[in-house]
Amino acid sequence: MNVKTRPHNNTRLKLSLWLALTGFIALLFADIDIHRASPSQELLRMGQGLMAPNFWSYREIASSAFNTLAFALQGMALASAAGFVLALLYRHPLVRGFCAFIRAIHELFWALIFIQLFGLSPLTGLLAIAIPYAGTLAKIYGELFEETEAAPRNNLLQSAGLSAFFYTTLPLAWRPLLQYTSYRFECAIRSSIVLGFVGLPTLGYHLETALGNGQYNDAAALLYVLLAIVLSLRWWLKKALLPGYLIAALIYLPPTAHFSWANIARFLSEDIIPAPLRNKTNTDYVAVFDWLAMLWQQQILPGVTSTLILSQIALLLTAILSLAWFPLNSRQFFSPLKRSLGDGFLIIARTLPEYLLAFIGLLLLGPSMLPAILALGIHNGAIIAHLLGRYSGELVLREDACTGINRYSYEILPRVYRQFLAFLLYRWEVIMRETAILGMLGIGTLGFYIDSAFEEFRFDRAMLLILCAAILNIIADILARTLRQRLHLRPSPETL
Amino acid sequence: MFELHKISLKYRKQTVLKDVSLTIRQGESVALVGPSGAGKSTLLKHLRSLQAAKVAWCPQHAGLVPMLSAYHNMYMGGLSRHSALYNLANLLRPLAIPKAELQTLAQSLALDAELYSRVDELSGGQQQRVAIGRALYQQQAIFIGDEPVSAVDAIQADKMLSLISQRHQTIVLALHDTEQALRVCQRIIGLKDGAIAFDLPSAQVTAEQLAALYQA
Question: Residues with Cβ < 8 Å from A214, sequence gap 6 or more?
């Protein structure tokens, strides 16, 4: 008999092997040493802090919590409005490219740029969130519109135009659109917190101070507030209340800034022009080439290399952790009570931003790639495990199906593997984006060189490096999409 | 109105109609009959595509927007008569003129009680009447319907069909109920195996001819 393996199975296996292989090879080149003498002692102090949170500076906590929410609300309001308009034009390749570009630049990089223009102002925070989020929302909205059923539209006398869109396409896409937007709001809160690490007055600002000074009781209080805000979202994030929230946010933190036009003009016309080109009378092309070659050799190449190395290891860890953890949230393995405990852990790990986890990891383990790898693996692993667990819970097994590890390997894993790969490929872009950023904590990825360039006021270098990071993300985006299409994987965008 | 000369049509890459020639003049009412798979739907879709902006179209699968009300689904027939701004305002809150028009239309379709219900809460028959309402509200001279009353009970079906006849000059329908076709239309086209088996005035169609259509 002629036995043929199905092509998809084969490619799925191949993809998995490639991911594992690149991860392990990357591990050979990575610096994953522990540089602290006694991480366990520090961990113990952190644990003590978590047991005794200090809420005494409640005024500060409250104001930074409100700032966090205000940035997220305003940023999302602007992003969803702009994203909606862009999504209407999403068929146009120029619009597609524009959206891909603005979302390829991380909100922290946008913040660093806007800080140069508008200082540490509310406007900076608003724009830093709104711009990349508009790019992402435009993509998701655009795809949702394209995926709606065509029949209602085609039955009209004129299927093109705004009226047909508002009567057929929009109502058909409305529910998933709202679901995705509310998920993105959760992400915006995380982004808003992380913006504190570059100086904006959100929870992250105080977290960085408290953690950096070893005041773990203060940090614990901030952490609990952070968790409380995100975990309570489903109770207070109501459509009808949104206009009220937005008005309150605008009154509490008006998006203004003190800035001088001369300053902005200088930044755009002088500061970001490559240094050898600034002398307008006499352009020295050799000097430009030398400048580029020097940057390529000293910053771009090492930055890109370690970004790739770190993200591949983080991807591998994410894969391993999500496969190990998803039973925690699966009906197939645990009773509801145990499962709610397991999922509780996953939800907390998912709620804490990678950047914060990496910062804590650095305090514990010292400067190496290890904290970043762990942070990315834990956060993204928890996200996938949570979704995969829920997905596996919907499977119907026969009455006499085996239990325990046999059930995991024979019944469940083969059935969820496809979905797992889809989630993983989607997170790949996200991991790549975040890896670049974690360099700002002192790990040698692109973010490190970008942050240093800003500190040295070498904005020309900073811009070039940000451009490199953006190109890297765009490549990952395209590659992941191609792979997903080739493997016939289509994750629903609801919570990714 | 419509002139087809030796036309072949495909459905999902398979030729379902071969060398079909057909003329439909203004003022005619034509019924396509024949077993399923004979190419009725394909022929109707093709006829519609010839003058898409002038044809009131009632497809076999209603293709309604489930989360909108019957009112808004029917109003969709008239979208191209108004500006986008007017349509948008009507989407937020029904405007007086279309509201009055559609209430009258809903009465004649026996949908007045369900006019403001979401269509996914309606029964299959009610949804089909909404689709008819949408086609009627397109207010065109030509009506093309693919089994427009298949899910409606017999008494109501005749009412719907006569409503359609009253409001359109030219009618082309696919109907599986041959007696219904004979009652409503002046001309019957029998389709079988991708070709026209007969094309006669209703009065001249015999029971044998109809029976032959459905024999394997």
Answer: A45
